[in-house]
Amino acid sequence: MKKNIGINIKGLARDMAIVLSSCAIGAFGIVAVMIPNGLTYGGISGIARLVQSTLHVDYNIMFYVLSISVLTAVWFTLGMMDVKKILAMSICYPGITVLFSTMGLKFDLGNDQLLATILLGVSFGVSYGISFYGGFSSGGTDSVGKIIKMKLIPHIGLSKITTLVDFLIVSVQAVFLGPRIAVYALISMFVAMKITDMVLYGFSSKLIRMTIITSESETLVNHVIKDMHRGVSSNTMVGEFTGEPRKELIIYCTVRESFEIKRYLSELDPRAFVTVMQVKAVWGEGKGFSDIGELDEI
To answer: What is the mean pLDDT of the chain?
Structure first.
């Protein structure tokens, strides 16, 4: 009993450290870099920035309103399981932005907007990477994309929907804030995406190979094929400890997709067994794969 309590306390402390560090780094990017340098971004932070710039509404108030609005929408459309993923960060993230704003935090870059754009992308990328690693979400366009996918276009992949939502937000910003600022936002988003992958998986290869043994193989296969638009192969293997035959699923995917699978599987089957291997290249037909007729360096 004491051992279980110790494990729970350790796990809670780990989760708190992940949430606080992720929120603090992201809030630093917003308060100390984005706002003082006149920049913007995609997602709800970009919407809040747009409202602040055009209607002169306090950024922190708008950010809090949007975060709670997304949290409420997720509750009513996706259920409590998805709410748990974003609850901590939806409350903590805006709270830390308010704290940093009160402190007057500002990172002086000598009015160099391009340098500030890159730093903003790095800040968000590190923040996203830490939260994704811990299985959390800030409740931004990922959550909005899930709602859109579930209610409107279930046949479209989640990554495509979230990318489209962010692009639409930046397009509106281009109209009201100018194309130059919108281009800077796109650069920040690109940097953030690359930094997120680096935080999650270091400087490794773009594609990885996941081998999964789970009692919920059919449900997982359905999710990967229909929702993520990835292929799955399977072998039948026998565990020598139990002597029972099991399906061994093999998936080639990006690092970002692997963590999406991990989060989904942690809820579906916490006792699943997963191995991950780095892959230098994959030749053949598939998303992100190289044409077998092309010459690639190994």
So the answer is: 83
Q: Is 288 left (phi over 0), alpha (psi -120 to 50) or beta?
A: left
Give the tokens for residue 119: 């730093």
CA-based end-to-end distance of the chain: 52
Q: Provide the pairing of β-strand 245-254 with 207-213.
A: antiparallel
Cα–Cα distance, 62 to 60 (Å, whole number): 5
Cα gap 280→283, rounded to integer Å: 10
* pLDDT, tens digit, 9 for 90 and up, residues 77-95: 877 766 776 778 888 888 8
Report d(CA 129, CA 122) in Å as an integer.
Answer: 10
The answer to whether 38 and 113 have CB atoms below 8 angstroms apart is yes
pLDDT in tens, 154-184: 777 667 788 888 889 999 999 999 999 999 9
